[in-house]
Design goal:
The protein is mainly alpha-helical. It has one domain: Winged helix-like DNA-binding domain superfamily/Winged helix DNA-binding domain (Arc Repressor Mutant, subunit A). The protein contains three helices and two strands; from the N terminus they run ββααα. The chain has a two-stranded antiparallel ribbon with strand order 1-2. The relative contact order is 0.18.
Length: about 80
């Protein structure tokens, strides 16, 4: 079951050009995901962004998972014989 990320993630054209951000901040989902991809620990990310908490960090990951799932191509249908 995926975490309900909706209370934690906002898209607003007047904030960071409409990029997905953690609600109440200007911290983009992309920034947090890039930090994770670089190998930063949760603790290091939370130290770098003191307005975040563990729930917000988990919400970013859940948002990314759902977004990636939506972008996956559909499996090919078997060819008709």
């Amino acid at each position: 079951m995926t975490m309900n990320f909706k209370p934690y993630i906002t898209r607003d054209p007047s904030i960071c050009g409409g990029d997905a951000v953690v609600t109440g901040t200007r911290i983009t989902v992309r920034t947090i995901l890039a930090s994770l991809a670089e190998g930063m620990s949760d603790e290091a990310i939370l130290a770098d962004f003191p307005t975040l908490n563990r729930d917000a960090l988990r919400a970013v990951i859940a948002f990314a998972a759902v977004s990636a799932e939506e972008d996956l191509p559909l499996p090919a249908l078997p060819a008709a014989a």
